[in-house]
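Researcher: Please predict.
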Amino acid sequence: MNKTIKTKVTIFVGLIIFSIVILQVIFNIFLANPYFKAQKSNVIEQLFSQINQNYSDNETNLYNIVNHREETDNLQITILDELNNVIYSSYGENHPFPPNAPLRFKNEKGRVIFSENPSAELQVNYRTNEESLMLHGIINSKNGKRFIVIETPISGVKQSAKILAKFSVFISIFALLFGGFAAYIFASKFSKPIKQIDEVARNVAVLNFTKKADENLPNDEIGRLARNINIMSDTLSQMISELTSANQVLQKGIDYQKQIEKMRREFIANVSHELKTPLSLLLGYSEMLKNDVEGIDKSFYYDVIIDESKKMDQLVKSLLDISSIENNLVKLKKENIELGEFASLLTAKNHVLFAKKNIIYNTHFENDCCVSGDKIHLEQVMKNYMINAISHTKPKNMIKISVNKQQDNVVFSIYNEGENIPMDHIDKIWDSFYRTDQSRTRNDENNVGLGLYIVKTIINAHEGNYGVINHDGGVEFWFSLKSTN
């Protein structure tokens, strides 16, 4: 079973607290008594050294030296001269040595040994018969040798050690309980941001970037980790979003290339079809003229050859013009054009086309409809619209041509009475060589099946818009360009 960080931290801190408590109990039970004895021995030896350095037989002086130690460290001090007379005693008038006390300077078994370099030793006090720490030292003063006895009962030390050991047990229990609880709280608080970071990481792994780690953490390793994983999440989200957008663009490009390839094949097929008829006529009529066949109308044959040659020339020019615009081989020569005046002049110039088919037309051209464009190509667009309208309008029917301003755009439109364009053909009529009536052949000298496709190409190059609207009893073609005034 996998343990959580909270559990691991709680166990780890708990083990540390438990180890410290166990060490404290061991020390108090087994080492406290020797430690206290060593400390007490050090105090006794320090006092002897202090008396040795500042010794005089003056009782007041001696009192000032030893009084503090007597009270604070529970020491008893006795100073004797060489005749066993008491110079100073913590016991007052009581003689520190009872009659059965061992004699001094006897290096025999059971006798007290005084030394100039004494150390505190644990022995039975010959005055109280209790185990005590005792020091027997000699000081060489100007009045002769002085014998120093410093003692303290060991029972107090043992009692202190026992009390401390007992008290440490209660302290240890409290430390374990409180420490365990504190470790649990600390582990919970410590692991909370890590759990949040883990949750963010798991969401990032499944590409969910909505989860965020708390950034209001201290500026330590965990706080920096939280902020960095948020940065990583945002960066990945942005990169995936950009990658998705790039894939969409790429997919559109692939789809567009497929569409272009399809159009290319259709274009080649249509061009082949369009050129097949005039080429056949040219070939047939030319062979008949070459063979000087009797009974033919040579003048008519020459006219057919010339007419078909003109149509082929118009087709090739149109294709070259479209290709040049689409591939940016021809740079548009834009200038400021008053489209109303320009359309009026073009309509007047081509009125013969309307008259030839006995079509009624009227115009409405507003003033101050200025645009930026290439005159030659815009004239081609408007003429193609006119030819398209004329070819689909019956004699004595109406064509309406207008130029007007709509908000920030100038709109050219031409309406002709006639049949509506089927809805499933609306988007296709702008393709090259497309006809709503697929069985219809070219019966107009200017109709090569590229009129509306040329319109689309030129208007796109001008960054304008174009379209067609079906009305009751007729069809309206239009294009719009940005107004310059």
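Model: The first strand starts at residue 76 and ends at 80.
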